[in-house]
Amino acid sequence: MATASQARKILAYKPRLFVLLPLLGKGNQALTGHERDRDMSLKSHVALTVAAFLALATITKAEPALQLDIVGGTYDLVHEDIVTSDPVFQLAAILNPTSGSAPDSDDTFYIAVSLLPATTSAVLGGSFVFNGTTVNVTADMTSGTPNGLSPHGQFPNFYKEFSFTFDLSDAGKVLLYDVATSPGGPTFDTTGTAFAKLFTVDKSGLADGIELHFDLYNKTANGSVDKVAPFSHDASTIPEPTGFVLTLGGLGLFSLIRRRRS
């Protein structure tokens, strides 16, 4: 997904195009040799500028090689990740092999599950279940940072790493999409050009005040993190709405209905 700075760069091309366009040619008027050369030069310049603009727009719209999504999740524009408050949900790891920076599709990949808020102090934080494996917080977790992973405000921390491979058969194919603009889970389709792997996560056993964060990556031969899902395309859990918040929401809706009826 294009950043704000990239968007500004793209928009910066537009005034140049519109400034040049009125200068092209004189309609049906006769041109001198000098004017004809200048006219052709301007046309060539515009053509190159348009080509550069289109190429840049294509690059900035390209889907990442790795992404995380949550079935039924939403995109948090403030923290730039996929979130859910559901106690049990499906986490989706997505591989786009058409990306120029994509790792080998048959590689081993990893999901690091870490704590929110981040801590390096051992706590009795209950437990969570990741695809059938129960993890006790923090007894079954490692304190630190996965080798080579950028801290991105989440590490050092307690985390648990899970390895997996993608199903590269038709059963694992999904339609390619950008989770930042179309969150909520992949669409499995045998005509798809991407692959997805689903993991069932149960966070209902966590202690109050503890949530989870997810990072996706593969590793180099020496065991350090290699390709990573952009930190704008990772995932987290958030607290469930409290009864008080739900009550306020209900009162607000009731008040809105009353105003509309009156």
At a glance:
The chain is an alpha+beta fold and 262 residues long. The protein is built from three helices and 14 strands.
Number of domains: 2
Q: How large a portion of the residues is in β-strands, by DSSP E?
A: 25-35%
Spans of at least 5 consecutive residues with low confidence: 1-28, 48-60, 244-262
Structural class: alpha+beta
What's the SSE pattern?
HHEEEEEEEEEEEEEEH
* Rounded Rg: 25 Å
Choose one word for the global shape: globular
Q: How many distinct beta strands?
A: 14
The total of helices stands at 3
Helix content: 10-25%
Could you tell me the mean pLDDT?
A: 81
Q: What is the distance, rounded to the nearest whole angstrom, between the alpha carbons of the first and last residues?
A: 45 Å
Biggest sheet, in brief? Answer: 8 strands, mixed
Features:
262 residues, 8-stranded mixed β-sheet, 6-stranded antiparallel β-sheet, globular, disordered N terminus, disordered C terminus
Explained architecture:
- With 262 residues, the protein is of the alpha+beta class.
- The chain has two domains: 57 residues; 177 residues, no CATH class.
- Helix content is 24%, strand content 29%.
- Strands 2, 3, 5, 8, 9, 12, 13 and 14 form an eight-stranded mixed beta sheet that branches.
- α1 runs antiparallel to α2.
- The longest helix is centred in the N-terminal third of the chain and has 28 residues.
- The N terminus and C terminus are likely disordered.
